[in-house]
């Protein structure tokens, strides 16, 4: 694995001024940054690394039709279809109505229908030229329905940019918030009452007291006593949320001096640990890194199976053990095997059982202790997944897992379709832990580096 190649992939998009010159970065080759690609992935025109599995999909569709093209094609296809369907059937019927002929008797209609089935082959081949399939001339006494035109393949839906997907995912959060804000400020000036009501709205939207006060404070100093529109509030809100989120929007640092760099993934069950591991593995192995996945959730057979599927799907190595086996023992074996295989990254899944907290604490502590014996710095990253749909619960979960396992960074999942996306802002303000990625779907490419401004705008319902 050429390190220069890794470096290129994981610093991809970093603005030149942010990258220290070679001489100033002796650790540059080792400290590789995963995620946070800039220019942002929604800049579809920008060059994309051909080894990025997500980008690869984009490349496949990048030359595809624009939304306008698609619309045109659809219209064209529809009109073509109509033409095909009407060509062989209409002439007789049209002639009849055009000439104002009175309705035929049943007998005459049957006779005409018989004639219709005797349309000469030559006539039918004309319709074939227009796109329909050719029908052989049938002997007298046979009839056939005219062939159905070939179905017109539906034009592929244009791929949405990341920002569009994020906005769609957070639409419930933002529409609820902006709808209430607009209603609040309709025909009302910004005064103490409206400020207080706004603060309540922002707190109810899970943004947290601190951020709510920041927003009302900024709004008050700019517009007190004046008319305020929902748009004014959205803009100020986006600005203040960006300020809260920017310090935590950090890339996941991989130190490839360690072989393997160990990522321990923790979190309550169902928050998306296994799925997120699969998505991360896809990004890393797609970039040429050698990845091993360890099924440390030994409580659930399905979790082991699920991780194995992700390993196969992402070309990662897999290590598991039997149901109920000691997870710390599995972590030990996984580390040894990953080191022997010269894996770049070892990602360890764990069981999440908040209801058995003592047991969970003991197990996680043991895994961390065992890994520390193998490499004093391991686990090098302790990643916690948080399910956005759980709102305030997610806040408490960070508290618990931070104490138990020394969480070093977060990934928030299920931001698609939730009205509670604001919780990420409250968590950032309170815990100040790095947020590396966010998940907006169950698909392999539904995980993107967390970007403060995009997220803030999406929550505030801004389109640009
Ligand atoms: N909509 C949506 N679903 C997600 C996302 N991430 C994960 N999921 C789904 O959430 C469910 C739980 O995900 P898992 O990865 O099994 O969660 P887990 O934390 O490993 O759960 P346990 O194995 O029970 O501890 C699955 O159905 C996933 O497909 C996301 O970003 N959006």
From TrEMBL:
Catalytic activity, reaction form: GTP + H2O = GDP + phosphate + H(+)
Keywords for the protein's UniProt record, in alphabetical order: Cell membrane, Cytoplasm, GTP-binding, Hydrolase, Membrane, Nucleotide-binding, Receptor
Taxonomic superkingdom: Bacteria
Membrane topology: Peripheral membrane protein
Domain SRP54-type proteins GTP-binding as annotated: residue spans: 434-447
Region (Disordered): 13-97, 111-151
First-tier enzyme category under EC: hydrolase
Binding positions (GTP): 267-274, 349-353, 413-416
Documented EC number(s): 3.6.5.4
Biased composition range(s): Acidic residues: 69-97
SUPFAM superfamilies listed in its UniProt record: Domain of the SRP/SRP receptor G-proteins (SSF47364), P-loop containing nucleoside triphosphate hydrolases (SSF52540)
Localization, UniProt: Cell inner membrane; Cell membrane; Cytoplasm
Subunit structure: Part of the signal recognition particle protein translocation system, which is composed of SRP and FtsY. SRP is a ribonucleoprotein composed of Ffh and a 4.5S RNA molecule.
Family: Belongs to the GTP-binding SRP family. FtsY subfamily.
Function: Involved in targeting and insertion of nascent membrane proteins into the cytoplasmic membrane. Acts as a receptor for the complex formed by the signal recognition particle (SRP) and the ribosome-nascent chain (RNC). Interaction with SRP-RNC leads to the transfer of the RNC complex to the Sec translocase for insertion into the membrane, the hydrolysis of GTP by both Ffh and FtsY, and the dissociation of the SRP-FtsY complex into the individual components.
PANTHER family in UniProt: SIGNAL RECOGNITION PARTICLE RECEPTOR SUBUNIT ALPHA
Protein name per its UniProtKB record: Signal recognition particle receptor FtsY
Organism of origin: Rhizobium puerariae
